[in-house]
Amino acid sequence: MDISAVDLWQRYQEWLYFHSGLGLYLDISRMRFDDAFVAKMQPEFERAFVQMAELERGAIANPDENRMVGHYWLRNPDLAPTPELKQDIIQTLEAIEAFVAKVHSGEIHPPNQPKFTDVLSIGIGGSALGPEFVAEALEPDQAPMKIHFIDNSDPTGIDKVVKSLEDRLSSTLVIIISKSGGTPETRNGMLEIEYAFTQRNLNFAQQAIAITGVDSNLDRHAKSQGWLATFPMEDWVGGRTSELSAVGLLPAALQGIDIREMLAGAKEMDIATRTPNLKDNPAALLALSWYFAGNGRGEKDMVVLPYKDSLLLFSRYLQQLVMESLGKEKDLDGNIVYQGIAVYGNKGSTDQHAYVQQLREGVPNFFMTLIEVLEDRQGPSMEIEPNVTCGDYLSGFLMGTRAALFENGRDSITLTIPQVNPRTVGALIALYERAVGLYAFLVNINAYHQPGVEAGKKAAASILALQKQVLAVLHQETAPLSLEAIAAKAGASDQIEIVYKILRHLAANDRGVVLQGDFAKPSSLTAMISAS
Ligand SMILES: O=P(O)(O)OC[C@H]1O[C@](O)(CO)[C@@H](O)[C@@H]1O
After folding, report:
1. 451: phi then psi, degrees, rounded to nearest 5
2. For the chain, which end, N or C, has fewer CB atoms within 10 Å of the first or last residue's CB respectively?
3. ipTM score over 0.95, yes or no
4. What does UniProt list as catalytic (predicted)?
5. C-alpha of residue 33 to centroid of ligand 1, in Å
6. pLDDT at position 63
7. pTM for the full model?
8. What is the 3-state composition of the chain as percent helix, strand, coil, each rounded to the nearest 5?
9. Where are the alpha helices (DSSP H) in 57-143?
10. H or E element that contains 146
11. Whole-angstrom Cα distance, residue 349 to residue 312?
């Protein structure tokens, strides 16, 4: 499509979406679809709008897990399918606010300290990415509490957090977030921090709270240990759509972020994205663009570049939301489809000095989403050059990248918000949640399960079970054994490579295992339990 500047300006105006309440613009004019494509997609969208309305009314939209999908109810409890669910949502929100007020006032405080000073949030995936994104985007200058995260089973990462908190560990409120209440990384983080508390004679239970599914292992553990509080994570809220449940709201409120405004922004966006009319529905416009870019098969990656440092983690947040929702082997009819859209990005203009070279000139396997924030900063800016500020440069870089990409046949979407604030962040979250939901209906997949992740978890569990067997074998021997012999004795002859890697890891960590031989030739190695 070779288009003149005048026609492009026309196309821009024809496709521009503007939400006056939020001051949000969506521009898909630089996606090169034509009218025939839109006409072809129209009936597909009509179907998707009907399916979406059913989902919001409480239909089982996650057939595998036999669950409703209710994150939309969180910001408008009146939509909940039963009065009980509505009441639960309202009560949880009120409980969060009451708890946070007591923490901020010092009514709830750690033993021997007048107030909690810090929050340590331990969780992974959907139980971390939303709170991390929001903390980075919205942390107030004078936050009443500073937040820290553990979102991995990496001992060095955990040590770093503990070290940074050291003197304030005694006034740190620890939140363990896990819907299932059984995710190993989160459990490990909890045990490590509990240990750090014990070593310092601190009482973990009196500084801990849990956000988890009712009656999960974590819920029972927290209650039996007398933790400060527990907050529910409803089974109809998926991890990656949980930012506006207790998972995201409690940490945000503790940091002094206005969570009612986040909910209000999301609610306003939900209303806009419920419109069953393609051109008036920003989520449908996004889904249309994604479908066009990747042929409805994810053939192109979604690069997300917010031109605002505080939105740095948005692409990481979207990576889970989009890829865990859309990355599926089978469609709803059981056909093999290998669906998905790969998402990556950090921020502009920083990334222009990294990989944008390839985007402009290299393999054209992506489409871009540029996120623009109209307000440069609060207060006036100095002039870098006559009549030019730093923010003008950032804006110029964004427009320049958009133009340079388009010139070279690379499509882009531009999303513009007036400011990064709780309302616009809530709206962004809601916009992408709905776009993912609509796109999933278009390509006929279940966006609300994650069977692929389970396979990795099971494999990891079997490796740890094998490690125990390997150690048991070694403890029965006094002479060094070859890897082959160890694997055979552990009943895992077909797993010799894993046995080797387990032993190499144990040997590298003073775990009582000695490996000897030529390290360039693993088959020459022998292992034994060290003498000491
Ligand atoms: O909140 P949980 O149950 O600990 O799960 C954390 C994350 O793990 C996953 O289940 C994938 O392993 C995500 O979907 C989820 O957000």
Report:
1. -60, -30
2. C
3. yes
4. 324, 353, 457
5. 36
6. 81
7. 0.97
8. 55, 15, 35
9. 83-105, 129-138
10. strand 146-150
11. 11
